[in-house]
Write a structure and sequence with these properties.
3-stranded antiparallel sheet; 4-stranded antiparallel sheet; 8% helix; elongated; mainly beta; 38% strand; 9 strands
Protein backbone atom coordinates (compact mmCIF):
# COMPACT_ATOMS: atom_id res chain seq x y z
CA UNK A 1 0.00 0.00 0.00
CA UNK A 2 1.06 3.58 -0.52
CA UNK A 3 -0.15 7.15 -0.25
CA UNK A 4 -0.87 8.79 -3.64
CA UNK A 5 -1.00 12.56 -4.11
CA UNK A 6 -2.64 14.02 -7.20
CA UNK A 7 -2.00 17.66 -8.16
CA UNK A 8 -4.16 19.58 -10.63
CA UNK A 9 -2.94 22.85 -12.17
CA UNK A 10 -5.17 25.25 -14.08
CA UNK A 11 -4.17 27.51 -16.99
CA UNK A 12 -3.08 30.38 -14.70
CA UNK A 13 -0.95 28.23 -12.40
CA UNK A 14 -3.36 27.64 -9.50
CA UNK A 15 -2.88 24.18 -7.98
CA UNK A 16 -4.89 21.90 -5.77
CA UNK A 17 -3.62 18.65 -4.20
CA UNK A 18 -5.59 15.63 -3.06
CA UNK A 19 -4.14 12.53 -1.38
CA UNK A 20 -5.53 9.06 -0.89
CA UNK A 21 -4.31 5.64 0.20
CA UNK A 22 -3.90 2.98 -2.45
CA UNK A 23 -3.68 -0.69 -1.54
CA UNK A 24 -3.12 -3.49 -4.02
CA UNK A 25 -4.54 -6.82 -2.92
CA UNK A 26 -2.31 -9.61 -4.18
CA UNK A 27 -4.29 -12.46 -2.68
CA UNK A 28 -5.66 -15.08 -5.01
CA UNK A 29 -8.29 -17.77 -4.60
CA UNK A 30 -9.06 -20.91 -6.53
CA UNK A 31 -12.02 -19.12 -8.13
CA UNK A 32 -9.93 -16.18 -9.41
CA UNK A 33 -7.21 -18.54 -10.64
CA UNK A 34 -9.84 -20.69 -12.38
CA UNK A 35 -11.32 -17.61 -14.09
CA UNK A 36 -7.89 -16.88 -15.63
CA UNK A 37 -7.15 -20.48 -16.59
CA UNK A 38 -8.09 -22.41 -19.72
CA UNK A 39 -9.45 -25.83 -18.78
CA UNK A 40 -9.74 -28.58 -21.39
CA UNK A 41 -13.37 -29.48 -21.96
CA UNK A 42 -14.56 -26.78 -19.54
CA UNK A 43 -13.62 -29.03 -16.62
CA UNK A 44 -12.97 -26.32 -14.04
CA UNK A 45 -14.31 -27.91 -10.84
CA UNK A 46 -11.75 -28.41 -8.07
CA UNK A 47 -12.02 -32.21 -8.09
CA UNK A 48 -11.75 -32.62 -11.86
CA UNK A 49 -8.55 -33.74 -13.62
CA UNK A 50 -8.95 -32.56 -17.24
CA UNK A 51 -5.41 -33.49 -18.31
CA UNK A 52 -5.64 -36.95 -16.67
CA UNK A 53 -2.28 -36.63 -14.92
CA UNK A 54 -3.52 -37.66 -11.46
CA UNK A 55 -3.57 -34.07 -10.14
CA UNK A 56 -7.02 -32.55 -9.70
CA UNK A 57 -7.49 -28.85 -10.43
CA UNK A 58 -7.13 -27.83 -6.77
CA UNK A 59 -3.78 -29.64 -6.60
CA UNK A 60 -2.70 -28.01 -9.89
CA UNK A 61 -3.56 -24.62 -8.36
CA UNK A 62 -1.90 -25.33 -5.00
CA UNK A 63 1.30 -26.74 -6.52
CA UNK A 64 1.49 -24.19 -9.39
CA UNK A 65 0.66 -26.70 -12.13
CA UNK A 66 -1.18 -26.35 -15.42
CA UNK A 67 -4.47 -28.28 -15.74
CA UNK A 68 -4.13 -28.23 -19.54
CA UNK A 69 -0.76 -30.06 -19.53
CA UNK A 70 -0.28 -33.58 -18.19
CA UNK A 71 2.69 -33.09 -15.91
CA UNK A 72 2.92 -36.43 -14.14
CA UNK A 73 6.59 -36.65 -15.13
CA UNK A 74 7.28 -33.23 -13.58
CA UNK A 75 5.86 -33.76 -10.10
CA UNK A 76 6.62 -31.05 -7.57
CA UNK A 77 6.30 -33.09 -4.35
CA UNK A 78 9.44 -34.99 -3.41
CA UNK A 79 10.04 -37.51 -0.65
CA UNK A 80 13.35 -38.03 1.10
CA UNK A 81 15.09 -38.77 4.37
CA UNK A 82 16.77 -36.46 6.88
CA UNK A 83 19.10 -37.43 9.70
CA UNK A 84 22.30 -39.43 9.82
CA UNK A 85 21.98 -42.21 12.38
CA UNK A 86 19.36 -44.95 11.87
CA UNK A 87 17.67 -43.98 15.15
CA UNK A 88 17.48 -40.31 14.11
CA UNK A 89 16.34 -40.61 10.49
CA UNK A 90 13.00 -39.15 9.39
CA UNK A 91 10.90 -39.25 6.23
CA UNK A 92 10.35 -35.84 4.72
CA UNK A 93 8.38 -34.16 1.95
CA UNK A 94 9.45 -31.16 -0.12
CA UNK A 95 6.78 -29.20 -1.99
CA UNK A 96 5.85 -25.66 -3.08
CA UNK A 97 3.45 -23.55 -1.03
CA UNK A 98 1.72 -21.00 -3.25
CA UNK A 99 2.15 -17.41 -2.07
CA UNK A 100 -0.56 -14.74 -1.96
CA UNK A 101 -3.53 -17.04 -1.58
CA UNK A 102 -6.69 -16.62 0.39
CA UNK A 103 -8.18 -19.65 2.11
CA UNK A 104 -5.65 -22.20 0.82
CA UNK A 105 -3.97 -24.40 3.40
CA UNK A 106 -1.53 -27.31 3.27
CA UNK A 107 -1.08 -30.13 5.77
CA UNK A 108 1.46 -32.96 5.87
CA UNK A 109 -0.08 -36.09 7.34
CA UNK A 110 1.34 -39.49 8.30
CA UNK A 111 -0.06 -43.00 8.42
CA UNK A 112 1.38 -46.45 9.06
CA UNK A 113 -0.76 -47.96 6.30
CA UNK A 114 -3.07 -46.63 3.64
CA UNK A 115 -6.13 -47.27 5.79
CA UNK A 116 -7.43 -45.73 8.99
CA UNK A 117 -6.90 -42.22 10.18
CA UNK A 118 -4.03 -39.92 9.27
CA UNK A 119 -2.08 -37.95 11.88
CA UNK A 120 -1.22 -34.34 11.14
CA UNK A 121 2.53 -33.67 11.22
CA UNK A 122 2.49 -30.02 10.09
CA UNK A 123 0.11 -27.44 8.63
CA UNK A 124 0.67 -24.13 6.89
CA UNK A 125 -1.64 -22.17 9.17
CA UNK A 126 0.31 -22.86 12.38
CA UNK A 127 3.39 -20.84 11.47
CA UNK A 128 6.94 -21.97 12.23
CA UNK A 129 7.21 -25.43 13.71
CA UNK A 130 9.95 -27.89 14.57
CA UNK A 131 8.93 -30.07 11.61
CA UNK A 132 10.08 -27.47 9.06
CA UNK A 133 13.51 -28.60 7.83
CA UNK A 134 13.95 -25.78 5.30
CA UNK A 135 12.18 -23.04 3.39
CA UNK A 136 13.32 -21.57 0.07
CA UNK A 137 11.66 -18.29 -0.84
CA UNK A 138 10.85 -17.80 -4.54
CA UNK A 139 8.80 -15.19 -6.38
CA UNK A 140 5.46 -17.02 -6.42
CA UNK A 141 6.05 -19.84 -3.92
CA UNK A 142 7.94 -20.96 -0.88
CA UNK A 143 9.43 -24.43 -1.24
CA UNK A 144 9.22 -26.16 2.14
CA UNK A 145 10.68 -29.40 3.43
CA UNK A 146 8.73 -30.98 6.27
CA UNK A 147 9.95 -33.95 8.32
CA UNK A 148 7.85 -36.61 9.99
CA UNK A 149 7.44 -36.58 13.78
CA UNK A 150 8.35 -40.27 14.05
CA UNK A 151 11.72 -41.80 13.22
CA UNK A 152 11.97 -44.34 10.42
CA UNK A 153 13.14 -47.01 12.88
CA UNK A 154 10.00 -46.61 15.03
CA UNK A 155 7.62 -47.93 12.34
CA UNK A 156 7.75 -50.90 10.00
CA UNK A 157 5.97 -48.80 7.37
CA UNK A 158 5.23 -45.07 7.22
CA UNK A 159 3.53 -42.95 4.55
CA UNK A 160 3.46 -39.16 4.29
CA UNK A 161 1.04 -37.13 2.18
CA UNK A 162 0.24 -33.47 1.54
CA UNK A 163 -3.42 -32.55 1.91
CA UNK A 164 -4.59 -29.30 0.32
CA UNK A 165 -7.79 -27.49 1.32
CA UNK A 166 -9.39 -24.39 -0.21
CA UNK A 167 -11.75 -22.86 2.37
Amino acid sequence: STQVTVRATDSVGNTVDDSFALAVNLTDTYATWASRTTFPGSQSAMAQDPDADGWNNLQEYAFLGDPAVANATHQVVYGGITGVAPAARYLNLTFPVRKSTLGLSYAVEANNSLSGSWTEVWNSTSGAQAQVVSTVDQTDRTVVTIKDTATISSHARRILRVRVVQN
